[in-house]
Design a protein that fits this description.
Elements (H helix, E strand, L loop, with lengths): L2 E3 L3 E6 L6 E7 L7 E5 L8 E3 L5 E2 L6 E3 L5 E3 L2 H9 L5 E5 L12 H10 L1 E3 L5 E5 L3 E5 L2 E7 L4 E7 L7 E7 L4 H6 L5 E3 H9 L12 E4 L2 E2 L10 H14 L6 E8 L3 H13 L4 E5 L2 H4 L17
Parallel strand pairs: 4-9, 11-19, 14-19, 16-17
Antiparallel strand pairs: 1-10, 2-3, 3-9, 4-5, 6-7, 7-8, 11-20, 12-13, 13-19, 14-15, 17-18
Length: 306
């Protein structure tokens, strides 16, 4: 059965790149609604922005969606990952600004409130997007691929010159609550030099050492250090799940990424939907539904966050 949340939940915080405060409210939605954002600060015209792959405006630093009227919402990847990782298929996300609050830089605050509130089952089956044929995209040394499987897996590799990050690789079967247990508390990360460069361009205005892991060489500058030794690659997997959720249905397949980012994952979805015979939609049996991200997850699976 499809899920939505039981009652509305709200969050207030600052956007990572805009530095602007915003209040966001996740509301229940009916079966078949999917995930949509509503800009409540816009009084005229169409203020609804669907969380879909074909609404993404290409950006390198975050995922930004845009409707036909030019209304946009940016940095949606963490909340999208939280919804997908908790098994929520339908939600209306109201927001009074152009950027989702960054909170602590992870998806954990979203996940915690979602699980505290609980899910409501809807009397409609879940449809999943099954990968039938391998598709891939490549840009320079970075690439991403979707290949067939009976459940969702994410395999990710990163390689940074900074010793505090270096080379990291992780593979996870995303069935049940693995996102909640393994990935949701991993924070966005960057190098101090990148922060300086972004601020010169008017970006990362809301970034602090409290909502991102900032590194310089072999040093972690953020107080308390890392939550996981491989927190960086875990966060890239978190981002990937959020960006893949824009497919509009849970994916049955393996996502493999090497040095991939938001733009590449979206390019991969575009390649998938442009490739004849590469996918089909399947009605989930109880057995398939039990292996989807978020199936059976509960609050006790959340990791302790310092």
């Amino acid at each position: 059965m499809q899920n939505t949340i039981k009652t509305s939940i709200s969050f207030t915080g600052t956007g990572l790149h805009s530095g602007k405060p915003a209040t966001l409210v996740i509301k229940p939605a009916p079966a078949g609604h999917g995930v949509k954002f509503l800009r409540v600060d816009i009084a005229l015209g169409d203020a609804v922005v669907p969380a879909r792959w074909d609404a993404v405006e290409q950006t390198q630093l975050c995922t930004k969606i845009l409707n036909a009227s030019g209304v946009s919402v940016s940095t949606i990847e963490h909340i999208m990952a939280a919804l997908a990782g908790c098994g929520i298929h339908n939600a209306l996300v109201e927001i009074d600004g152009p950027e989702v609050p960054i909170l602590d830089g992870s998806a954990e605050p979203f996940v915690r409130k979602i699980l505290e509130t609980g899910l409501r089952k809807l009397e409609e089956p879940i449809w999943a997007l099954k990968i039938l044929r391998e598709v891939s995209v490549k840009r320079g040394d970075a690439w991403a691929r979707l290949s067939p499987a009976d459940e969702m897996k994410i395999d990710f590799s990163i390689d940074f010159t900074d010793e505090a990050i270096g080379r990291q690789h992780k593979t996870l079967n995303m069935a049940n609550g693995s996102f909640v247990r393994e990935l949701c508390d991993s924070r966005t990360f960057c190098r101090q030099s990148d922060v300086d460069a972004m601020r010169e361009q008017g970006l990362a205005l809301g970034g602090t050492l409290e909502n991102a892991v900032v590194v310089e060489g072999d040093k972690v500058l953020s107080p308390g250090g890392l939550r996981h030794e491989d927190e960086a690659v875990r966060h890239k997997m978190l981002d990937a799940l959020g960006d893949l959720a824009l497919a509009g249905a849970p994916i049955l397949g393996i996502y493999t990424g090497s040095r991939a980012g938001h733009a590449m994952t979206n390019a991969l979805l575009r390649e998938l939907f442009d490739t004849e015979g590469a996918y089909c939609f399947v009605r989930c049996t109880p057995g398939i539904a039990a292996r989807l991200p978020g199936a059976g997850v509960h609050l006790g699976e959340l990791p302790e966050v310092a």
